[in-house]
Design a protein that fits this description.
The complex is a heterotrimer of chains A (about 250), B (about 200) and C (about 450).
Chain A: E1 3-6, H1 10-15, H2 17-29, E2 33-35, H3 45-49, H4 53-67, E3 72-75, H5 78-87, H6 89-92, H7 98-103, E4 105-107, H8 108-115, E5 128-132, H9 135-140, H10 156-162, E6 168-169, H11 185-188, H12 190-206, E7 211-214, H13 217-230, E8 235-238, H14 239-245
Parallel strand pairs in A: 1-2, 1-3, 3-4, 5-6, 5-7, 7-8
Chain B: H1 3-13, H2 33-43, E1 47-51, H3 54-61, H4 65-68, E2 73-75, E3 101-105, E4 108-110, E5 115-119, E6 134-140, E7 144-145, H5 148-153, E8 161-166, E9 171-172, E10 180-181, E11 188-194
Parallel strand pairs in B: 1-11, 2-3, 3-6, 4-7, 6-11
Antiparallel strand pairs in B: 4-5, 5-8, 9-10
Chain C: H1 6-15, H2 17-39, H3 44-60, H4 62-75, E1 78-83, H5 86-99, E2 104-107, H6 111-116, H7 118-123, E3 128-131, H8 134-141, H9 158-169, H10 178-195, E4 198-201, E5 205-207, E6 212-217, H11 221-227, E7 231-237, E8 241-242, H12 247-259, E9 267-272, E10 279-285, H13 289-293, H14 309-313, H15 315-320, H16 331-341, H17 358-362, H18 369-382, H19 388-401, H20 404-420, H21 423-426, H22 447-450
Parallel strand pairs in C: 1-10, 2-3, 2-4, 4-7, 5-8, 7-10
Antiparallel strand pairs in C: 5-6, 6-9
Helix pairs in contact in C: 2-12, 3-12, 9-10, 16-18
Classes of the chains: A alpha/beta (about 250), B alpha/beta (about 200), C alpha/beta (about 450).
Chain lengths: ~250, ~200, ~450
């Protein structure tokens, strides 16, 4: 069984520890041997997305030092994984070990499906669930086909969710529109960000979702912030929590 | 330095990396191109007619209100419609204003989008396809291609020349995305495939 | 330094929630039409890839192809002019018109002439300029600019257009039916077409191999404007060129499907030389394009065919409106092109995106739009255009993330404060996140405190 370096993004570590623990349970259930390097902090995405390359570079270098030694690196976040896979090159191109790191860093569901070959997640979740497609997972990691592209349909996350007993995955009017989180965008463009978020929530509610799930706790944090403020009944749950919790 | 030289030199200096010209992808092949053409034409607001000959097409067009009620009409297609204006005498395109109907020859139909290639050298005045209020284009039945890629393979320009693909009637959706037929050009467009 | 920019203008647009959603829906409707047309072609992605390569190939030999174009266009009877910048472009167009005593010009849609601000230039010199695309005529009558490059009046409600037409074209008071208003515009503009002495068009594509220019419209306004008056002036940026006639087969299949969700525009007109007894002038314009071509990170932006698909799909554009960008070309592509012209003025535009990447996936020529937006952020920061406070915050965060002990401590203190500070303090004016949203939870223990087994 592969030895995996577990990458728990900083905001998951601090705000959503249960998402990290669920990812651990899920990976261990599938026989993965996990290592959690304690020196890890942040991949540098907030700095990179703000254009602060100088501030990002040392964090990218750190990440390579800490995670470069593992056969695989897995994180419960499409966005942070995309940072490593698609945006580290400009800081780390040519550095020893970078190519290995880039090719072997995976988002959690992607890892289950593509590397471990999991076809059925196993378990029961008798609820109406809306899947929020986080953009970086969708369009940078290609976890699903994406509504813009004319290619054979596929959806790795949905496939795992659909295999749960009793689950109903609802159909959204806009299957993969952005929720408006976008990192610092959520604060820089607060008005548009919140309108985008409310529109996503409304779409899930119209479809009758009891739970909104997704691969990125960051998008869910934004949506949950709006849901709690507006006192909406719909719940959010990271896909790791949903899959791990569905076991019994 | 003159502007022409300055621009060309700046573009050469820009140093865009060499990229070879790519081959074009193989376009779709429709099982029934004529049916596809007819459906595409209707979808863009046009009318499709199929007739064995000019007389047959004339009989069908006679059932169209704009054709039947046209007071002033020109036809460049023998046997279809009539000419109330001698275009060989008209040098000023403003003579086209006031025409209710034009019947024009089309060279080629395009199945994917219902467009017809109208060659400018067949038109005594360029504006014939757009100034008259209504339009019929007559295309030989065999002159049908699947896609625009196929169409351009059959078109050539040597020196001076005008040509236009016409796909249905003139239209706009500039007011609240509401589709309105008849913006500036033809208010209706019938395509007759003959033969 | 970035002055008041997109966030403020976007917030003003979004403040009218009903209108912003109306705008969002109108453009989303176009996006859905685009999806249906794209899916009708199994070769869609191959077409995009091909178009991308044709553009890259053309860019790599652009000067050669322009010379070939000029030779063939001249042989066909056109006169080719060259303009380094907007001012020269305007001077050339005015020169042609003035020399022939033209005082009445009809124009079909051309974003290039918007970029060059041709209309006020000509109007100041006594020439009546009539925009003839219905959407453009609407904004011209309203003394506004297009808010979208393909749908210039998409921001206007039909009732507002009804009032405008009532005041300026004499339509019935209170009438707002689109068919009625369009018919009124048809009559009004037909008079203008018949009276015009010259017609000006943009250029969608120019073909090196044949020396032709191609203009695509749905209304037929470019065709009216080039069929009635004897003088046709076609204005094109250098990037409009394709090498061969056959390349149009690729681009005409992509353009209208991407732009408005039609299988092709109603009219795709090919001009090689003037009409009998007339004149065709082609004005080839640089105005910053060669500089863009010389900038490797942004070179691909020059491939844009101005379909507007990136605007229709952009969740930010749909909810903030075209004017919020304060640029001739708004939306994702405009947010790349504008800072190249004036980084100080447009410094907020590359940040007006959640980087969702939908624009890159709809783009018919596969411009990596959201990566270019990111690249621009880096350049703007390097130019010192990020507000000092934000830069400092990033420096601080980066420092903390480099020191795990500090990160752990900061996390603990932060979570403690989040749990214990009074709400009024947490949700003070400083907290943009908390204006409409609750803050994230602050658990007692972090993941690393809970996960105790293995140090890897």
């Amino acid at each position: 069984m592969p030895e995996v370096g577990l990458f728990i993004p900083c905001y998951v570590d601090q705000s959503y520890p249960q998402v990290g623990l669920a990812a651990v349970r899920l990976l261990q259930r599938h026989g993965v041997k996990l290592h959690y390097p304690r020196d890890q902090t942040c991949c540098g995405q907030p700095m990179a997305n703000s254009g602060c390359d100088e501030e990002t570079r040392p964090l990218a270098e750190r990440f390579l030092r800490i995670f470069g030694r593992y056969e695989h690196v897995v994180a419960p976040s499409g966005s942070c994984v995309s940072m490593v896979r698609n945006h580290y090159a400009r800081f780390l191109e040519g550095k020893p070990g970078f190519d290995h790191l880039r090719r072997n860093t995976f988002e959690l569901c992607e890892y289950l499906v593509d590397v471990l070959g999991v076809e059925r997640a196993g378990g029961r979740f008798p609820h109406r669930v809306g899947l929020h497609q986080s953009c970086h997972g969708l369009r940078e990691l290609r976890l699903a086909q994406g509504s813009e592209r004319v290619v054979a349909p596929f959806d790795k996350v949905r496939q795992l969710l659909a295999s749960l007993d009793g689950i109903t995955l609802v159909d959204l009017t806009r299957q993969d529109e952005c929720c408006g989180f976008g990192g610092t965008f959520a604060v820089n463009e607060e008005a548009v960000s919140c309108m985008m978020g409310r529109d996503r929530i409304a779409d899930h509610e119209r479809a009758g979702a009891e739970v909104i799930t997704g691969t990125d706790a960051s998008c869910l944090m934004h949506l949950e912030g709006l849901i709690r403020r507006d006192r909406r009944p719909v719940k959010v749950m990271h896909v790791a929590e949903l899959l791990a919790g569905a076991e019994g | 330095m003159d502007s022409r030289r300055a621009i060309l030199e700046a573009l050469r200096r820009a140093g865009a990396p060499a990229v070879p010209a790519p081959p074009h992808p193989a376009p779709i092949r429709y099982a029934d191109p004529e049916r596809q053409f007819a459906e595409a034409l209707v979808a863009v607001g046009g009318r499709f007619f199929r007739a064995p000959d000019a007389a047959g097409l004339s009989a069908q067009l006679a059932g169209l209100e704009p054709f039947a009620s046209a007071r002033r009409m020109v036809s460049l297609v023998p046997g279809v419609g009539r000419s109330d204006l001698d275009l060989s005498q008209a040098a000023d395109p403003h003579a086209l204003e006031g025409l209710d109907y034009a019947v024009l020859p089309g060279e080629l139909g395009v199945a994917e989008n219902g467009a017809v290639w109208v060659a400018g050298d067949r038109l005594p005045l360029r504006g014939l396809f757009v100034v008259p209020q209504h339009l019929a284009i007559v295309v030989p039945a065999g002159a049908l291609v699947h896609t625009m890629q196929d169409a351009y393979a059959r078109i050539s320009f040597s020196g001076r020349g005008f040509g236009v693909f016409v796909s249905g009637p003139s239209k706009t959706a500039d007011i609240e995305q509401a589709l309105v037929i008849g913006a500036h050009g033809a208010r209706s467009c019938a395509v007759g495939m003959v033969g | 330094m970035a002055q008041a920019g997109h966030p403020e203008a976007a917030a003003r647009f979004a403040a009218d929630d009903a209108r912003a959603h109306w705008h969002d829906q109108a453009l989303w409707f176009v996006r859905l039409k685009r999806d249906r047309q794209a899916r009708a072609l199994p070769e869609w992605e191959a077409l995009r890839a091909c178009a991308e390569k044709i553009k890259a190939h053309t860019a790599s030999r652009l000067a050669d192809y322009l010379e070939e174009f000029e030779r063939n266009a001249t042989a066909a009877g056109a006169v080719v002019h060259w303009a380094r910048d907007a001012e020269e472009h305007n001077r050339i167009v005015h020169g042609i018109l003035a020399a022939r005593g033209v005082t009445r010009l009809v124009k079909s849609k051309s974003m290039l002439t918007e970029e060059c601000e041709l209309n006020p230039y000509l109007e100041a010199r006594g020439i009546e300029v009539v925009d003839t695309d219905l959407g453009e005529r609407i904004v011209q009558l309203a003394h506004e600019r297009p808010s979208h490059i393909v749908l210039p009046a998409i921001h206007k409600k039909k009732e507002e257009i009804g009032v405008l037409f009532h005041e300026q074209l004499g339509t019935a008071a209170g009438a707002s039916d689109p068919a009625y208003l369009t018919e009124a515009a048809r009559g009004h503009l037909r008079e203008k077409f018949l009276a015009a002495q010259a017609g000006l068009t943009g250029v969608n594509f120019a073909v090196a191999e044949t020396g032709g220019v191609v203009v695509c419209t749905n209304e037929g306004n470019a065709d009216m404007g080039t069929s009635l008056p004897p003088i046709h002036i076609a204005c094109m940026g250098v990037e409009k060129l394709v090498p061969r006639l056959a390349d149009l087969g690729v681009f005409t299949r992509l353009l209208a499907r991407s732009a408005t969700g039609q299988p092709v525009t109603t009219y795709t007109s090919h001009f090689h030389g003037p009409m009998a007894g007339g004149e065709l002038h082609v004005v080839v314009v640089d105005n910053g394009r060669s500089a863009l071509l010389a900038a490797p990170p942004h070179r691909r932006a020059l491939s844009c065919i101005r379909c507007g698909a990136c605007m229709n799909t952009c969740p930010v554009f749909r909810r903030s409106g075209g004017y919020s960008y304060g640029a001739v070309i708004p939306g994702p592509i405009g947010s790349i092109l504008s800072p190249a012209r004036d980084p100080a003025r447009h410094a907020t535009l590359p940040f007006a995106s959640s980087l969702c990447g939908s624009c890159s996936d709809v783009c018919p020529v596969r411009i990596d739009l959201h990566h270019q937006l990111l690249a621009w952020r880096g350049e703007l920061v390097a130019q010192g255009r990020l507000p000092a406070g934000k830069r400092l915050a990033m420096k601080l965060a980066s420092f903390v993330f480099r020191h795990p002990a500090l990160y752990r401590l900061g996390g603990r203190v932060g979570r403690f404060l989040l749990r214990h500070l009074p709400r009024a303090l947490l949700y003070g004016r400083w907290n943009a996140w908390g204006r409409q949203r609750e803050l994230p939870p602050a658990p007692k223990k972090s993941f690393r405190e809970l996960y105790g087994r293995d140090d890897g």
